[in-house]
Amino acid sequence: MLRLSSTDPGFAEAFARVVSDRRESAVDVAADVAAIIADVRRRGDGALAELTAKFDRHDLDASGWQIDAPACKAAFDALEPTLRDALELAAARIRAYHVAQLPEDRDYTDAAGVRLGATWNAVDAAGLYVPGGRAAYPSSLLMNAIPAKVAGVARLVVVTPTPGGEVNPLVLAAAHLAGVDEVWRVGGAHAVAALAYGTERVAPVDVVTGPGNAWVAEAKRQLYGVVGIDMVAGPSEILVIADARNEPRRIAADLLSQAEHDPTSQSILICDDAGFADAVAEAVEEELRALATQPTARESWAANGVIIDVADFDEAPALANALAAEHVEIATDDPESLMRRIRHAGSVFLGRLTPEAVGDYVAGPNHVLPTGRRARFSSGLSVLDFMKRTSFIQLDQAALEAIGPAAVALADAEGLPAHARSISVRLGQ
Amino acid sequence: MLRLSSTDPGFAEAFARVVSDRRESAVDVAADVAAIIADVRRRGDGALAELTAKFDRHDLDASGWQIDAPACKAAFDALEPTLRDALELAAARIRAYHVAQLPEDRDYTDAAGVRLGATWNAVDAAGLYVPGGRAAYPSSLLMNAIPAKVAGVARLVVVTPTPGGEVNPLVLAAAHLAGVDEVWRVGGAHAVAALAYGTERVAPVDVVTGPGNAWVAEAKRQLYGVVGIDMVAGPSEILVIADARNEPRRIAADLLSQAEHDPTSQSILICDDAGFADAVAEAVEEELRALATQPTARESWAANGVIIDVADFDEAPALANALAAEHVEIATDDPESLMRRIRHAGSVFLGRLTPEAVGDYVAGPNHVLPTGRRARFSSGLSVLDFMKRTSFIQLDQAALEAIGPAAVALADAEGLPAHARSISVRLGQ
């Protein structure tokens, strides 16, 4: 853990190093992924079967290419009631938040008599990548699938690796609850390629979202433009701004809730009371001792944890904007005034009773958020990632007479005479 | 020009070939571009100066790295009055359409007592690539710069190559009108790299938009994630749905307005009257004879032009949705009913008096639109490309008691005990 104080002479440089440390994998898998994509494009299902046998060690023809709807429903029905209720509460709350996010169409006629507008439509089909093994989170499936269904996507396809043929019943239950239409037992870059280009069995989709390892992320990047994708995701991160009126162990728990994800995760505390910050650091050590995910959380906190002492929280917004963190918790008396000055953040958690983890599961807003300072220019996943806008224009003769000549002048100036002609021929010129 | 009829036995296959023909450059510049990006990252301005001397044949230290605001204003003031008025009308109308597009923040408390919302903010800085030479269109500068300024971008930077040191006064005039803050005389992949990573002179930006050649497009793709980018752009295209009650030369002019852009552009006509379609084809030949851009337009029409005869316009929406064209003109008696069934299109032009070219210049909606069937999943440029959303959540004790236990159950099920702990420690458990 790194301890910085904003009054130290070297603070600006040390903080700049924290900001610029992207903590992202430098593994270059571009060539491997390009070869896999080409292979799937060329050989289709044959490539999928071969790569699945190689990476996941099972035979798709024997274990089944798809997991059918009754299997997903059975997994849901078999859930322990508390867990089923929790999943249903999460799904209902996520759905409600995203329904309220649906964009409105526009249609109006302006002073020049020009009718203008825009219509939103869902994409026809979306593909959702769900990692296998440890990182197969039902909450993540809900956070990706529900916005797609709320947007109106008719065909929602999950691809997920099932290493050794084993499936994750929680993920199947979530797929049932979210209304997923197809579940394919393929993962890796080859699954993304299948979604983008289609194979004999898998029909292509228009958008691919969802988390994945370096191969999956690179496949999405290479296929961007063939399909739409969500933002490139990096290691998770939290910035906690907390004053001395908090309980240290609560703030410690919040920092560790991020650290337990992965050794590359980052937890940062900004505090205006060095004594309280010391207490939090101690509480982190104490909490770590009892934590089942201790090895990961300890590694993350040791390598990437930061405590920044500030003289006044007035300094916090500038630091927060430079970090542009995925999650920002503001546990102070007046969180609102700080939030108003934080322009770059994925999601903000206000007050002492809003631990970030409620946002991961049940609050309603999406937990797929920009990482690695990408909150400077990108947003969390939303219904808009599964929709697109078509603008429209309608002129009558009067409107064309009013604005057409200006278009003719500009087309002529740009050396595009056919553009000018398509207008002037309607002006009787 | 290819003539198809929907009643031909081989129509489905022939139409599928039209749909799958992306007409995009297959030149692989990925390695070249990666080397240029690495060079700019390493050597900064030194690399920019060297690459500009190589590609644009002028010395930045001699000709000046930047074009200053007075020079842009002088170019604007020197415009011929008709052209200046036309640019001002275009800018005012583009501004009005995009102002109406600004998203609203959300802030509400739901039945469980959870406060939820989202705040939109502009990115701090945006970079706009403006091609040099023939394709340096002032209208394109307005269409990129005005949405950025309407979004609230404080620093808007143009990069543009000036081959041989020559600048395009129309582009400078448009930069003045749109309120561009900086104009740098650098182009190519190196200019995009400078925008993304910054150099000694050029401060980095958060989003890069604007058209460019294969090198520029590949640089944007490689830097996606370091900065935000607009959609990858391909050759332009128009689909015209026209009945026999149109004047053939008007429809011909519309088809040619797309064809004159580039030999790779595509113009497609869907018509329910073979005789009228013949008349349009003849009118295209006639119009071509008088056209200053004839060589390009003729090449495009010969190589990529398509006329599709249909028995009934009822067939048109399915064809239009498969093509997912950048521009769709509907020149029929009831364009509205067809538009309602077209889900995938960049922009729709309704009726006999709305040639696509009015949308290129003065209608107001953005002319930067998805090409190459990307309207299936992406939208035209908008203020949203220069903004991002921060969600927020606030719970009080009652709200946490209401939804917290479900989050604890899910965190436990996902094997994330520190997530659960950050909530349970606030529930007094």
TrEMBL record, chains A, B:
Its EC number is 1.1.1.23. CDD domains: Histidinol_dh (cd06572). SUPFAM superfamilies: ALDH-like. One of its GO terms (molecular function) is histidinol dehydrogenase activity. The keyword Zinc applies. Zn(2+) binds at residues 258, 261, 360, 419. One of its GO terms (biological process) is L-histidine biosynthetic process. Substrate binds at residues 236, 258, 261, 327, 360, 414, 419. It catalyses: L-histidinol + 2 NAD(+) + H2O = L-histidine + 2 NADH + 3 H(+). Its cofactor is Zn(2+). The keyword Nucleus does not apply. Coiled coil: none annotated. The active site is at residues 326-327. Pathway: Amino-acid biosynthesis; L-histidine biosynthesis; L-histidine from 5-phospho-alpha-D-ribose 1-diphosphate: step 9/9. Keywords: Amino-acid biosynthesis, Histidine biosynthesis, Metal-binding, NAD, Oxidoreductase, Zinc. Belongs to the histidinol dehydrogenase family. NCBIfam families: hisD (TIGR00069). This is Histidinol dehydrogenase. It comes from Novosphingobium silvae. The lineage of its organism: Bacteria, Pseudomonadati, Pseudomonadota, Alphaproteobacteria, Sphingomonadales.
